[in-house]
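Supplementary Methods. Inverse-folding protocol.

Structures were first reduced to a discrete structure-token string of length 106. This string, shown here, constituted the complete conditioning input.
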């Protein structure tokens, strides 16, 4: 079963205005010409490059902020929070750009 058929976050466009359309399955989304969210699309694709990027981000964070004898749990929490902040910033940029492309090229 496709992830798209399970997803509940879709967007519709009426007269150039985008609206969120939650709780649609794939069939309902097709009937109203809805588009899946960008996050849904990105989750559907396996992406080796993304996995490599995530590993590289972890490595860079650990090199920039070496372990200094704190508890290992505190260090893991610090690195995790740092990576989440970086990933969220990138997600915001990518999501905005993808939404721009979708609605410009309709």
């Amino acid at each position: 079963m496709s992830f798209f058929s399970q997803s509940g976050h879709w967007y519709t466009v009426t007269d150039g205005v985008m609206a969120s359309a939650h709780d649609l399955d794939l069939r309902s989304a097709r009937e109203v010409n809805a588009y899946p969210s960008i996050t849904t699309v990105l989750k559907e694709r396996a992406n080796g490059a993304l996995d490599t990027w995530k590993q590289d981000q972890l490595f860079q964070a650990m090199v920039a902020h070496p372990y200094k004898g704190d508890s290992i749990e505190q260090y893991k929490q610090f690195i995790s929070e740092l990576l989440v902040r970086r990933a969220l910033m990138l997600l915001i940029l990518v999501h905005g750009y993808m939404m721009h492309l979708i609605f410009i090229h309709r």
